[in-house]
Amino acid sequence: MERNEDLCRWFSLVLGLVMAFTWAAGQNRFAAVCHQVREDTLRLHIVAPSDTVADQSLKLRVRDAVLQETARLCKNAQDQEAAKEIVAASLPQIAHTAGRVLSMEGRPMGVKAEMENGYFTTAHYPGATLPAGSYDALRITLGEGKGHNWWCCLYPALCLSAATASYAEESENAVVTSGGFEVRFALVEWWEKITNKKV
Prior knowledge:
By secondary structure, the chain is an alpha+beta fold. The protein contains 6 helices and 6 strands. It has helices spanning 2-39, 53-73, 80-89, 91-104, 170-177, 182-195; strands at 42-47, 111-120, 123-125, 128-130, 133-142, 149-155. The strands form 2 sheets. It has a 4-stranded mixed β-sheet. The longest helix is centred in the first third of the chain and has 38 residues, at 2-39. The N and C termini lie far apart (48 Å).
């Protein structure tokens, strides 16, 4: 009887260890795919001049124009690096596009367009979710840039339609377009916040 209890305890211990290692391996694979998604994504980050309703509305009109412009510029980009190079080379043109919208709305002000690498929280879009972490991004600051920001994804073009977003690796598409990873995304964001580094 005692021997059977010892065998049961030993079996439970071994089973627990196997399950723990399996879970850890799955987490590591998920974290690796999230890292790849961040490496293969170019974000758009627009900061409004203030948080007034008028300035936030103005920011969205700038967003629409910039998205049209960058979609045209990056339509033949084969990967994130190519899209980033195209956008970086087109910063004056993109700033001009934003400035033209501001002038048309009777709100001329300074516009700054630059490339950045910054931290983004987990973002949910219709049919897609991007994990938290550090991303390369096009940052557009309107006026004094004291308002709440807005961000989306230039490459792949999640801003235009989640259905058009496509990564080279199927595992990346599965993570981004599936809704079954909410708990894991929360863990990724928690880990990012406490370590302030890529996972």
